[in-house]
Amino acid sequence: MPAVTPIRALQGRTESKADKGFTPGAASQEPPEQTQLRQRQLRALGQGRPAPRSGEPDQLRAADEESEVRALTRGTVQAAMEVLAGIRPVHQLARRLDPRCLAALQHRAALIRREITRTGNPALGRLHRNSIVRSVRICEVAVGTYEASAVVVDDVRARAVAIRLERSKQVWRVTELVIG
Fold it and tell me: Where is the composition biased (Basic and acidic residues) (predicted)?
């Protein structure tokens, strides 16, 4: 027996659903924003998250926030190592680091440059060169506050970097930066 397609089944009818005033989605009689909320709630329940309520803005999921913090940590640590190597100006990190961390990083970079010129040691010249962030670990310590650690390998040695990020006004700011 051949399968009957919906088109063939509708062709045999004399009066269509459109003639009767039926429109798709009208059966639920919900406004579009209510339908969208219901769809978000169903998706959230399917992913094991609490369902959003009406009137509440969609917030970042924990996984999205964690991946954002991990990416910011990786980029910030890489940029800080480039500042110490002398291949990046420190002011490029001014928007991400708080003033105290920025001043400490600038001071450390100046000390490294001064020591290189004072001693002329070729090993110091290779310090912080070709730095690569190997791994990043993050931990949420409070709502909107993360602490992270990174392993950085350069030409001379491997080192650990600790960082603390706090969210203020939807912007992540580094409040602590410790380079080992």
Answer: 55-67
Q: Look at residue 107 and give its three-state secondary structure.
A: helix
Arithmetic mean of pLDDT over the chain:
79
Three-state DSSP class for residue 152 = strand
Residue 55, sorted as left (phi over 0), alpha (psi -120 to 50) or beta, turns out to be: left
Among 177, 114, 104, 180, smallest CA distance to 147 is for: 177
Residues 140-158 have pLDDT tens digits of 999 999 999 999 998 888 9
Taking each helix axis as running N to C, give the angle between helix 99-119 and helix 62-85, from 0 to 180 degrees, rounded to the nearest 10. Answer: 30
Residue 91 DSSP symbol: G
What's the CATH fold of domain 62-179?
A: Nuclear Transport Factor 2; Chain: A, (3.10.450)
Q: Which of 176, 171, 172, 148 is nearest to 160 (CA)?
A: 148
Angstrom CA distances, 133 to 22, 79, 103, 128, 178, stand at 60, 10, 22, 12, 15
pTM: 0.63
